[in-house]
Amino acid sequence: MKEPSWKLGAAALSAAYRAGRTDPVTVAEGLTARIASLNPKLNAYVALADDFSEQAAASRLRWSAGQPLSPLDGVPVAVKDNLHVMGLPTTWGSRALDGPAMADELPVARLRAAGALLVGKTNTPEFAVEGYTSNARFGTTRNPWDPALTPGGSSGGSVAAVAAGLACIAIGTDGGGSTRRPAGHTGLYGLKPSIGRIARGGGLPQILMDFEVIGAFARELADLTPLYRVLAGPDRGDPASRSLPEAPTTRQGLRILSVPLLDAHPCDPQILAAHRALVGRLQDLGHHVTEGALPLDLTEIDAFWGRFAQIGLAQIAATLPGMQTKAAPQYLAMAEAGSGVPAVELFAALQAVQRLRTDCSRLFGDWDVIVMPCAAAQPWPADQGHPEKIAGQPVGPRGHAIYTGWVNAAGHPALAVPAGRDAAGLPIGCQLIGDMGAENQLLDLAATLATTEKRTWNWPAFALSSARSAEVQ
Q1: Which of the two ends of the chain, N or C, has the fewest CB atoms closer than 10 A to its terminal CB?
Q2: Which residues carry out catalysis?
Q3: Whole-model pTM?
């Protein structure tokens, strides 16, 4: 093989298996050595599957017999540590949880049934409610593009693993932007599907209710699409997954609303420049792009947003043995605050969510796609919870995250796409947001965008220099 196997994405790896140029056991052995070399510096993985080699051996037998289970058979996949993988601990980044999961939760079970190689669990901030990735139990995860900086959160371990070549693809969760922002910070594609598109079941409580969905990551669209195909689909255990139609796909002359800024919130000028360049490429493709304000009233949602997580943590604190003595103090404080939120305020917030969903349903009668930045800031120091300033203006803990949460509350799909680099060479991401069930529309649009720049994945220097020093093939 011309390329080391760790550089291959899911599609290329599947083709190499089919042609007999490599096999899953060889790939697993090389990846295990590479993780041993790089993960101590990156801290992407917090647990590795004991049966990784056995999974690979079973996949090799299927390929040898010409009977792979799916295009993902033998493809290494990383899983965020708030999703159950049978035999591995699900800690949620907390000292309050431990012990192996007794079964895969539904999305993981679908990956296993497709023959994917489940590599291990990736780091997340405690209870997955932060925009960076660090916790007292496992420490800080770093960005392969600059290990001094964060890959974002809360799916930071998953994106770091994929961007550094420690997995071909990965899954995580997205309750307020935890797929799209980390994908943007590491140059990946990151899909947040519609509520119900990827059925859930058999997992941890969802602190952010149905706002939280399974997210998918890949370096190339050719790898993201088969991952999405394996994960997507209804299940009787998830009623929301059984009533979501697939939106029709239109490829020409899309009505696109460009929203570079939200109200008076600041955004890094380099992100705005990348957003403008992306919009120009959409126009060159013949789409009808209009720049304007987001025609939604997010006042009530924004005002209550932090309390959703507080209320969820309050419920966890009331039901999880050990949380009161083992969770980090800031999450206990959040739980205490959540326990004091009056029911009438929560009810009013849920009514605001329903109004937002109605308004978004009408909005996408006028527009096919909305394009916005993934985040308002570029990556900041890895052990710092959030940037203190953006474009010279002081911001709070969610200042970098203003573009994403409303999409979760609305329940619509969004796809993070690479949109260039900043002056320091760090990736910049923008998101394409579509109508309910319009995942295929977004994937098709991203595919046409990729052709306009003949985009190929360029490896971070950290991944390449580490590979040379370790001589891992």
Answers
A1: N
A2: 80, 154, 178
A3: 0.97
